[in-house]
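lol ok so funny story. i was supposed to be doing the assay writeup but got distracted and ended up predicting the structure for this chain instead. priorities right. anyway since i did it might as well share w the group, maybe its usefull for someone
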Amino acid sequence: MKYFDFAATCPISNEALQAYIKASQDYYGNTKSLHDVGTKADTLVEYCRTTLAGLLGADPQGLTFTSGGTESNMIAIHSLAEASKGRHIIISAGEHSSIKNVTTKLSKQGFIVSEVPLTKEGIVNLEELKRLIREDTSLISIQHVNSDIGSINPIEKIHKICKENDILLHSDCVQSFGKIDLSTFSSLVDSFTISSHKIYGPKGVGALYIHPSISILPFLPNVTHENGIRPGTLNTPGIAAFTTAANERLSNLPRCQDHFQQLKKEFFKNLNARNHRVEVLGSNVASSIPIIGICIKEMNSQHVLLEANRIGYSFSTGSACQSKSNGPSPTLLSMGISEEKAATFLRISFGMEQTLEDVRSLAEDLLEILLHSGRP
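and the output, tada:
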């Protein structure tokens, strides 16, 4: 099976796997235990925290290890909302379901949540964002990279808007971490989230950064782990493997970016994106984000996916976290795309181990599926 769904998850790298095994065997203590075995594990976790924070250009005191991007987003939004006096929150219409779910919960607790639409390029409409801001707006959450089409939001401009209006800014960076240099990102946002399994680390581990200057209430009372921000025994092997994967990826970031750009260029060349039946969505065609969103005219995406799976390809019809919703992608609808057209959407995402030949084969076989679909 040829895998083209790396935006959903990646296999663990050999280096990260070896780090996981070693930490499981040699650093198995509970980091809050007072004996030497616990202290040894705690020392490793703090080393990982300092290392990962350094890669991110962030203060280690603001970095919390979690079970992944979803939990990180939940804690971030809940904590920042409760830390502010205002009761109005703005999110983008293209946010990940983890953001939408927690803001839906907050809306039932007295908060007012507004969604800012996307442009036809799939980025936040800045004029609409400015229009939605009210006196009681306390928090804005805008993802850095969209998980469906790979569009990159202008966080620098959004940061300026938030700064001018004294509003906290959160950004979901799960899809940008490891693809874009985030070393200056912590100076632009009040919090951001990242995940391990999107960069060849293990599943079940991620991180949340909240600027240490922000005073937040713990999600639950009487919590001792992670400075009271997140309960539960830490996944020390996962944290070690996550840090290893992050260091591995970011130390080779320019090479990774060049590789993804070459793969995308080859895919478009062989698919012939000007084909009247294929439309590329978003504005990331030349970027290093390894996500491509396309719509195929007059052909249901589920049919294409099943046909491709039959001949040995794996890709998706959007974010895995909303694949069972049975509805069109909110990202596409907010871009002004009809439900009928959204039903033709496919997401293809690349990984480091793929070759130009892999991409050429995918493009050729997709064209074969279209050719034999019996439609014009």
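The chain has twelve helices and twelve strands. The mean pLDDT is 92.
back to the writeup now i swear
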